[in-house]
Amino acid sequence: MSIDDRPDPIEGIMESSRTVDSELRRRDRRLGHTLVIGRAYLASAVLIVLLAAALALPHSSGVRGLDVLFFTDVAREQQTSLPSHVFVLLYSVGTILFGAVMILTQKWWAAGIAWCASCVATVYGVLAIWLRQSGRGPNPDFQDFGAPGIGLYVSWFLVAALVMALAGVLWARVPEQRELEESARQVD
């Protein structure tokens, strides 16, 4: 038997994948464009609303989360650090804004952006808390540097919980998607 007499295995794979793949992929794409409304989705929506409310809580002594977000004079007087600004900006714009877009449109890309922003904001939140707890701030000679406020702790906890909830939203599958996976396995 020569090499020319054997059927091309790649061509056989390509032919079978063209016929089955197109219908399965079309159905999977249609199902994959929207999010699954479930416990993780509802938990994310509640956490996003609570996170928006946490902006009104004290970030540190005399400074609210809104002051940090909008770079007010009160935040400058308390020498709010850059990680605090980045933390509040990330969870406000990235998590709350794109979380609201996720709730309104039920699109996975909005949930993905909110999840990524939440992951990065969690790290900056830990850094912001740590810098506030050091008690000296950016200027070692500054007196009355405020400790972290309840708003900083609450917002960090909400963002950390939102990382888990949004992960559940992103990886949730409807039963139709599971059926498509099973039918794709059976065809292969």
Sketch the topology as an H/E string, one letter per element: HHEEHHHHHH
Main β-sheet, spatial strand arrangement: 1-2
Rg for CA atoms: 24 Å
Count of beta strands: 2
User: How much of the polypeptide forms β-strand, as a percent range?
Assistant: under 5%
Characterize the main sheet.
2 strands, antiparallel
Question: What does this 3D model show about the protein?
Answer:
It is built from eight helices and two strands. The protein is an all-alpha fold. A two-stranded antiparallel ribbon has the order 1-2.
Quick synopsis:
The protein has eight helices and two strands; from the N terminus they run ααββαααααα.
Key traits:
188 residues; mainly alpha; two-stranded antiparallel sheet; 8 helices; 3% strand
Which helices and strands occur, and which strands form pairs?
Layout lengths: L8 H24 L6 H16 L3 E3 L2 E2 H5 L3 H5 L4 H24 L2 H26 L16 H22 L3 H13 L1
Antiparallel strand pairs: 1-2
Helix pairs in contact: 1-8, 2-5, 2-7, 5-6, 6-7
